[in-house]
Design brief:
The complex is a heterodimer.
Chain A (H helix, E strand, L loop, with lengths): L6 E6 L7 H12 L3 E4 L6 H10 L4 E6 L4 H14 L7 E5 L3 H10 L4 E2 L5 H11 L10
Parallel strand pairs in A: 1-2, 1-3, 3-4, 4-5
Helix pairs in contact in A: 1-5, 2-3
Chain B lengths: L24 H15 L29 H4 L23 E2 L2 E2 L4 H13 L5 E4 L2 H4 L23 H7 L9 E5 L4 H15 L7 E4 L4 H7 L6 H18 L3 E2 L1 E4 L1 H5 L4 H21 L4 H4 L3 E7 L3 H22 L5 H4 L3 E5 L11 H15 L4 E3 L12 H16 L14 H23 L3 H7 L1 H18 L27 H16 L2 H17 L3 H10 L4 H12 L9
The chains are: A alpha/beta, B alpha/beta.
């Protein structure tokens, strides 16, 4: 692979236990050569943001199938900003109606994939849109 | 339309030797099939089920060479129940059309229930919101943004009273999809019955109450597996004495399948869970023939028509043998596997959503031919949001058309004796048995869950399936085949943000007006019971009467039982 290896956080926020999609994406991104950290279930936005900062990731990907996307996605953006890490891009996937996708993108969520998106779509999008935030020394 | 048979036009067409006695499959392959394939090969696809079980070109009598219909089929209503548990099939009574629903506040959902009952639905099925499913109150930090989103928000008995307002509980059967906090929500239902003056003995319904599949698939847990099983055996013991017509556990394959398992895995892990519950009941000192007849199952019906039918037919035969031979149950009702079916949510697509009506129809027909006792048909818009009233109506009408127009309910188990269906049924049974043996070797289902065995098998299967779709090896119309560019958005149900605000206000008011000393005493009694091993049900019932919240009662048990933490693998 050319360039430094991207480090991605795949997160499940809220009480939603539907982790089929998150695990498939985590595995597909790993198999595509990225470094993937999966948070596991039932994380608060605070926990996800802390992990993202501690692990110094290049992007955060959230999976939400509970209908709480309008609350949880913006909350993660807000907390990243509060902690001065708004340069970490956030994207995600789940059961999100089209008009909510438009709103969330306006608020700064970079992309939202819905049921039917292929893992190849996600990998391609990551390759095209996520850049290493900094070239880590000794990488 | 002409019905006159057409005459062969070539002098010696392939198949000319047909109808000769003593012809073997080999003869056919050599003389008839071979020349045809030489001229025109079969389609270049892998012929396999949606679960990747390879499927032969032709099922023929030799597939059933060693197959004894007396042993494998029996008669409807008789061991091993392959042909169904009712001697009359659907001629006596159709399946129960039971649409799972719940959203927003108890008042919103109560209105939807009355609508569904007025439109011919025959049973209620309660969908709770995520905080309730996780045993958390609407004012809990982790509940924020989730209140009333995926189901109805229930914090205290007052919400439950509102949910069933004007619905006489002696006239409906109610299914409640609730697991970790099942005992609490069930206690609330009993308290509603008390307030309506309905004796507990007449109540009919089902609790999902299947905690094992939560660790395996759906991930809505609170306590670790072993104390969770103890709460369940308390509930089974209580119901055997006080609520004898209640189905205490709906052992669920649905979520296992939705998590990405194959059909065989769904069958195997679900039956293994069933074995786990029966074992736990027996170990708790209950009589198998008292509690086992109240266990029921819940399966998924996915797109692969015959695979689903075979899975359901195999499940009955497997369970009958396990209950009779392994657990030595004597009561035939302990041997009968009764089940609810829901069509596969994971098979629906956000693209071209109207196509979902067709998928649901095929899946529902499979469930009927598989002999389901009740059925939920998904709505076309469920990959986008909770269903709108219009979409729910189409889903219900789909069942009514199948029941009243299609003719599939006229005769019992119409596919019996089909070379293909019987061979596939045998295969599903054999492959599921192999998994169950493996789980037994691991020390039973609880030990298997603790080592992550079923979780890993499912994660692998779901990843394989996704790759097959991504590579186009499995077709999904509208997603990787027959894709449309311009799609018109459809109207979907919106849950207003006020639901959460209002629910929190209601909860705050109850907390301020109830007798808090009585609540504290009741909660302490629950914790003491958790410690002492006393049956928890009467203690929980008292706590809900005192208006203790779902979250408070869970928290009191957590102090004794602890909390489950999953080690996540992907």
């Amino acid at each position: 692979m050319e360039g430094p290896r991207l480090r991605l956080l795949v997160g499940k926020v809220g009480l939603d236990g539907h982790d089929r999609g998150a695990k498939i994406i985590a595995r597909a991104l790993r198999d595509a050569g990225f470094e993937v950290i999966y948070t596991g279930l039932h994380q608060t936005p605070e926990m996800v943001v802390s992990t993202a900062i501690q692990e110094d990731v290049d992007a955060v990907s959230l999976s939400i199938l509970s209908g709480a996307h309008n609350h949880l996605f913006p909350r993660v953006l807000e907390l990243l900003k509060e902690r001065g890490a708004e340069d970490i891009p956030v994207f995600g996937g789940g059961i999100v109606p089209p008009e909510d996708i438009a709103d969330l993108k306006e608020k700064g969520i970079r992309e939202i994939f819905t049921p039917g998106a292929s893992t190849q779509d996600v990998i391609r999008w990551v390759r095209e849109n996520i850049k290493p935030r900094h070239v880590s020394p000794g990488a | 339309m002409s019905t006159k048979p057409t005459k062969p036009t070539t002098p010696t067409p392939p198949g000319a030797a047909a109808n000769r006695k003593g012809r073997t499959r080999k003869d056919w392959e050599l003389e008839t099939l071979g020349p045809t394939i030489a001229k025109r090969p079969e389609r270049d696809v892998e012929f396999s089920t949606v679960s990747s079980l390879p499927i032969d070109r032709l099922a023929a009598p030799e597939d059933l060479d060693a197959w004894d219909p007396d042993e494998r089929l029996g008669f409807p209503g008789e061991f091993p129940y392959t042909r169904g548990i009712h001697p009359t099939g659907y001629r006596g009574k159709l399946w129960t059309m039971r649409q799972f629903s719940g959203f927003g506040s108890a008042a919103d959902t109560n209105e939807r229930y009355k609508y569904l009952l007025a439109h011919g639905q025959t049973g209620l099925s309660v969908a709770f919101d995520l905080p309730t499913l996780m045993g958390r109150d609407s004012d809990d930090e982790l509940a924020q943004g989730e209140v009333g989103r995926e189901g109805v928000a229930i914090d205290t008995l007052d919400d439950m009273l509102r949910l069933f307002q004007d619905i006489p509980l002696d006239k409906v059967s109610t299914s409640m999809t609730i697991n970790s906090p099942a005992a609490i929500l069930f206690a609330m239902y009993l308290a509603v019955a008390e307030s309506q003056g309905v004796p507990l003995e007449v109540l009919e319904g089902t609790l999902q109450n299947d905690i094992l599949k939560e660790y395996i698939a759906q991930k809505e847990w609170i306590y670790p597996p072993r104390p969770s099983l103890r709460i369940i055996t308390d509930l089974m013991g209580f119901c055997a004495k006080r609520v004898p017509k209640w189905n205490t556990i709906s052992i669920s394959g649905y979520h296992i399948r939705e998590a990405g398992s194959t059909a065989v895995q769904e069958l195997a892990f679900t039956i293994a869970d069933g074995i786990g519950y029966v074992q736990a009941g027996i170990e708790a000192g209950l009589d198998v023939d008292v509690f086992a007849p109240r266990l029921s199952y819940f399966f998924n019906s996915h797109n692969d028509f015959f695979e689903e039918i075979a899975k359901m037919r195999a499940s009955r035969r497997l369970w009958a043998h396990i209950m009779r031979d392994r657990f030595k149950a004597k009561n035939p009702r302990s041997w009968m596997l009764r089940f609810h079916t829901q069509t596969a949510g994971c098979s629906l697509t956000a693209q071209q959503p109207y196509n979902n009506i067709v998928r649901v129809t095929v899946q529902a027909m499979a469930a009927i031919l598989g002999g389901t006792q009740s059925l939920h048909t998904n709505s076309l818009d469920e990959t986008l949001a909770l269903p709108s009233q219009e979409a729910v109506t189409i889903a219900l009408r789909t069942q009514q058309i199948l029941a009243e127009e299609s003719g599939v309910a006229n005769t019992i188990d119409p596919l019996a004796g089909s070379y293909f269906v019987e061979a596939l049924t045998d295969r599903m049974e054999a492959e599921a048995k192999a998994y169950i043996d493996k789980i037994d070797a691991l020390g039973g289902i609880v030990a298997a869950i603790e080592t992550g065995f079923p979780q890993k098998e499912i994660a692998d299967a779901s990843y394989r399936y996704q790759q097959q779709i991504d590579r186009g090896e499995k077709s999904v119309v509208g997603v990787n085949k027959h894709v449309s560019d311009a799609e018109k958005p459809i109207d979907i149900l919106k849950i207003s943000a006020e639901v959460e605000v209002d629910q929190k206000a209601r909860l705050a008011k109850i907390k301020a007006t109830r007798d808090n000393r009585a609540v504290t005493a009741a909660l302490e009694a629950v914790a003491a019971g958790a410690k002492s091993g006393e049956n928890l049900m009467p203690l929980i019932l008292e706590a809900v009467r005192r208006r203790a919240t779902v979250g408070e009662i869970c928290a009191s048990m957590k102090t004794v039982f602890g909390e489950y933490r999953e080690v996540s693998v992907f």
